[in-house]
Design goal:
- The complex is a heterodimer of chains A (about 350) and B (about 550).
- Chain A is of the alpha+beta class and about 350 residues long.
- Chain A has two domains: about 5-230, Rossmann fold (3-Layer(aba) Sandwich); about 245-345, OB fold (Dihydrolipoamide Acetyltransferase, E2P) (Beta Barrel), CATH 2.40.50.140.
- Chain A contains eight helices and 20 strands.
- Chain A has a six-stranded mixed sheet, sandwiched between helices.
- In chain A, α2 crosses α3 (about 115-125) and α2 (about 100-110) runs parallel beside α4 (about 145-155).
- Chain A is elongated, with a radius of gyration of 24 Å.
- With about 550 residues, chain B is mainly alpha-helical.
- Chain B has two domains: about 1-25 and about 325-543, MetI-like (MetI-like fold), CATH 1.10.3720.10; about 35-300, MetI-like fold, CATH 1.10.3720.
- Chain B is built from 26 helices and no strands.
- Chain B has helices spanning about 5-30, 35-40, 45-75, 80-90, 90-95, 95-105, 115-120, 130-145, 145-155, 160-170, 175-200, 205-210, 220-225, 235-260, 280-310, 325-335, 335-370, 375-385, 390-400, 415-435, 440-450, 455-465, 465-485, 490, 500-510, 510-540.
- The chains are: A alpha+beta (about 350), B mainly alpha (about 550).
- The interface of A and B includes residues 48, 94 and 105 of A.
- The complex binds adenosine-5'-triphosphate and magnesium ion (MG).
- Magnesium ion binds next to α1 of chain A.
Chain lengths: ~350, ~550
């Protein structure tokens, strides 16, 4: 089976800086791949290069098995001939057209007969619950409705690949959750492949089949959500994915020695030497192990977030609300060897 | 209860603007509404068709040139864009009168310099700029920067993902341009079209210089003729003014109808990174087009003017040419009107610019912050002069104050001031309301809750924060006042001659070199003022 998208060694430069630097990944048929990373890491640039809106300075891009960009062979297929759709961050709804005209544009631009276009447009509008708004001017819509128009326009023509650039970032929190579900549902039903750009790790984890984590124009790590959750490979990946305890340590013979002299067991076959250990606040077990002082107690949703201090080492832990967790008291804690990762990069 | 300061400000502005704008407009209506005179005017003369032809042809071709310049400058990888853009705006400062005069020296059918050269080399005359074609040619060159500015601003405010989205969804470059870019440009192009149409319908200088010698008379030159025959026929002139006003009001109403249906111009105030289209080799062709425009509209006329101010007389024979400063000496020390005109013009420029700045700060604030019925009325009054050609405004002012003992300003520069204030008001109020919309209202609220009154807040918060805009408005109004012809030519008397009138006077007297010298001096003052503004801006950015 051919890949829906295949990106190899992609380089995009602006003047002397490489905004995207030798990025490679594949998207399989009907797969949802997310480009995740902090602001300015090159997600949008990568996506626009796939769409043909940005001209790469090197590398190869193939869509559905056909080469659309190849720096060495001087292939550069224009965006309109790449057979994909896109949902833009600003939605890019044309203000001089009605809702239906917006959704019908992909048909009109490709010279498809009205008799074919009309039912497809109606179907797409029905899928996003906008059937009643077809003749409304596109400027008379709320942000959420414009979002749906952009979605309908992207799915109406039935392209096998849809690109999304932070489509939910302009919505309020509640609407964002709702649209996230609808989007996942729609993609499963229609079976298109998606490349989805976001800087929100929750969004990435809940929607994706695979995640590409980017940093400074390069790929930091890629894998399934559970791969990334369980095994971040670098300090950056761990920190970005919400592993809040990253502590310098000396690793030797299955033990990590922290700055305060504390020994923690780790599972690790790597060479001994200085590195860091990383564990999630939820992995900290209280009541046994070594002593620490409770510096600060915060309510975080339905649990408590504790800041523990043991000499020069600070540890964040989660606990159920219970007595005995007052600031200033001493408590015992430890982390199981299986929950503690060693980071050498 | 004591009325609040906001209410008092609104009321004062309503009175003042009503007086400045409505009184002259009403007096044209009253004095021009003479059915028999109107009927006689409209039957059997080419003046009305000439005027409509000039207005329509000029505005269409100015918008075509301006739109092309805007597209090339805002959307392509034109070589040397940064330098070309300010050059494209220069025609605004060179003035239609001087451009027309320079082109008449270049292209009059017999004595035109271009024709003298082709006569000598090839034995025929190349161009004839006397008549309708010459008027439209020069007026289009002179007014193209207006649509250029408006359309380029529209293009730059356009979200580029609107076009990207079209491309991704199957549209070729051409299809996306035709179905997305062009329709989105339409409102600003239409706005520019009507603006140029209103301005050129009442245009005096270019048809007076290039049209009348070729037998091409328009309403503005006819009004001037009627007022300068003996005895002056003010009634008939006012009837023409009424005709002009009716046409321009109609055009503005039509524009509002058309734009109301397309209310999609959403000003987000967001700065977009413009997406430049790589034109390949064609970009050199586009650069050639821009340079051609700059050459025809600025470089050639200004070079001709400078040459004429220095040469002993207009000739193409290098053996006969001699260069010195005697024409400058003549206009400065011998020609009686020059010094008085310069003094009057500078005085009027400073006073008009300062009053416009103060009034538009007040009016802009009321329009943007108050949003009640009074504010709407202030906005309408302040913007109404956009629909009134300045020569009509001047007719109204003339009719109102000639023989009015209550306010004896007729025959003084004050009557010019009254007309200038109304004429330049929309420009200032539009600029200031734009600047105020960018200013978060809470900045003022914070001053008010800290105990500052309205005037104190305007002076201590709004004034300093809008100072760059105020400085730009002051300078531009000052420059435009120095150049104003259409209103001044009706309102001056021997004691209140201004620079543009003195130039026209020299033109009619045939003192061509002296005129060129005076024109060069006016250009020097203009560019000195503009470079001061540029310095001020740079300092503002650095601070
Ligand atoms: N047209 C451009 N010209 C110059 N530099 C650019 C351009 N577009 C992007 N960049 C730079 O390239 C880098 C990557 O930008 P990109 O928009 O891809 O980031 P992003 O990951 O999408 O970030 P965000 O989450 O903020 O949208 C940034 O450093 C940006 O400043
Ligand atoms: Mg982005």
């Amino acid at each position: 089976m051919t890949d829906a998208v295949r990106v190899e060694e992609l380089v995009v430069t602006y003047g002397p800086v490489a905004a995207v630097d030798r990025v490679s990944f594949q998207v399989r048929e009907a797969e949802h791949l997310t480009l995740l990373g902090p602001s300015g890491c090159g997600k949008t640039t990568t996506l626009r290069a796939v769409a043909g809106l940005e001209r790469p300075s090197g590398g190869r891009i193939a869509i559905g098995g056909a080469s659309v960009f190849d720096g060495a062979r001087r292939i550069d297929v224009p965006p309109e001939a790449r057979g994909l759709s896109m949902v833009f961050q600003s939605y890019a709804i044309w203000p001089h057209m009605s809702v239906a005209e917006n959704v019908a544009f992909p048909f009109r631009a490709r010279g498809v007969a009205n008799s074919v276009a009309r039912p497809a447009v109606a179907r797409a509008l029905a899928l996003v619950d906008l059937a009643a708004y077809a003749d409304r001017s596109a400027t008379m819509l709320s942000g959420g409705q414009q979002q749906r128009v952009a979605l309908a326009r992207a799915i109406a023509f039935g392209t096998r690949l849809v690109l999304f650039d932070e489509p939910l970032s302009n919505l309020d929190a509640q609407l964002r959750l709702q649209m996230r579900e609808e989007l996942a549902d729609l993609r499963r039903r229609l079976g298109f492949a998606a490349i989805y750009v976001t800087h929100d790790q929750d969004e990435a984890f809940s929607l994706s089949d695979r995640i590409v984590l980017m940093r400074g124009g390069r790929i930091e790590q890629q894998g399934t959500p559970s791969d990334l959750h369980a095994a971040p490979r670098t300090r950056f990946a761990a920190a970005f994915l919400g592993v809040r305890n990253i502590i310098d340590a000396d690793i030797a013979h299955g033990h990590a020695t922290l700055a305060n002299g504390l020994l923690l067991p780790v599972r690790d076959d790597g060479p001994p030497g200085p590195a860091a250990i990383a564990f999630r606040p939820g992995a900290v077990v209280l009541g046994r192990g070594t002593p620490a002082t409770i510096e600060r107690v915060l309510f975080a949703g339905d649990q408590l977030q504790l800041l523990l201090r043991a000499g020069p080492v600070d540890v964040i832990a989660y606990a159920r609300p219970q007595s005995g967790l007052e600031e200033g008291t001493t408590i015992m804690w430890h982390v199981a060897a299986g929950d503690c990762r060693v980071l050498r990069e | 209860m004591k009325p609040r300061a906001e209410t008092l400000l609104t009321g004062a502005l309503l009175l003042l603007l009503g007086w400045l704008v409505m009184v002259p407009a009403a007096s044209v209506l009253v004095s021009g509404a003479d059915v028999t005179a109107l009927r006689r005017l409209l039957s059997g003369t080419a003046i009305l068709t000439n005027t409509l032809l000039m207005g329509a042809a000029t505005s269409l071709s100015a918008v075509a040139i301006g739109a092309a310049l805007a597209l090339v400058m805002a959307r392509t990888d034109l070589p040397g864009r940064g330098m070309l853009e300010p050059l494209t705006l220069l025609p605004l400062y060179v003035t239609p009168l001087l451009t027309a005069i320079a082109w008449s020296w270049l292209g009059s059918p017999r004595g035109g310099l271009v024709n003298l050269v082709t006569q000598r080399l090839a034995g025929f005359s190349l161009i004839d700029l006397h008549g309708a074609a010459g008027v439209v040619f020069v007026a289009s060159l002179a007014y193209a920067p207006v649509p250029f500015l408006l359309i380029a601003a529209g293009l730059r405010a356009m979200d580029p993902s609107l076009e990207d989205s079209a491309r991704v969804h199957g549209a070729s470059l051409r299809f996306a341009f035709a179905h997305v870019t062009l329709p989105l440009m339409l409102p600003s192009a239409l706005g520019a079209l009507v603006l140029v149409f209103v301005q050129t319908m009442g245009l005096f200088s270019i048809p007076a210089v290039l049209g009348v010698p070729g037998g091409f008379t328009v309403i503005a030159t006819e009004i001037y003729r009627l007022l300068n025959t003996y005895p002056p026929r003010l009634g008939q002139a006012a009837a023409w003014g009424l005709v002009l006003l009716a046409i321009t009001l109609l055009a503005v109403l039509l524009q509002n109808r058309l734009l109301a249906k397309r209310s999609f111009v959403t000003i987000t105030g967001k700065a977009f990174r413009p997406r430049l289209i790589a034109m390949g080799r064609a970009r050199w062709l586009l650069a050639g087009f821009v340079w051609l425009y700059i050459g025809l509209a600025v470089a050639l006329p200004v070079a001709t003017l400078i040459w004429a101010s220095l040469v002993n007389f207009l000739t193409i024979d290098p053996a006969l040419m001699a260069f010195d400063l005697r024409h400058f000496a003549y206009v400065l020390f011998t020609y009686p009107k020059a010094l008085m005109a310069a003094r009057n013009s500078l005085l009027l420029g400073v006073v008009t610019a300062s009053l416009i700045v103060a009034l538009s700060l007040g009016a802009g604030w009321v329009v943007v912050r108050r949003r009640n019925l009074g504010a709407t009325a202030v906005e309408y009054l302040a913007m109404a002069p956009l629909a009134i050609p300045s020569i009509v405004l001047a007719l109204g002012v003339l009719w109102t104050y000639a023989g009015l003992d209550l306010l004896p300003i007729y025959g003084t520069v004050a009557i010019l001031l009254v007309a200038y204030l109304a004429h330049f008001m929309p420009f200032g109020v539009r600029a200031l309301s734009g600047a105020l919309r960018q200013l978060h209202p809470e900045l003022e609220d914070a001053a008010r809750v800290s105990g500052a009154g309205l005037l104190h807040t305007l002076r201590r918060v709004v004034w300093p924060l809008t100072r760059p805009t105020l400085a730009a408005v002051w300078t531009l109004v000052f420059v435009l006042t120095l150049q104003e012809v259409s209103a001044s030519i009706l309102l001056y008397t021997s004691r209140s001659v201004v620079l543009s009138v003195a130039m026209f006077d020299l033109w009619e007297a045939g003192t061509l070199n002296g005129l060129a010298a005076l024109g060069v001096m006016q250009l020097a003052i203009t560019f000195a003022a503009l470079s001061l503004l540029a310095r001020f801006r740079q300092r503002g950015v650095a601070a």
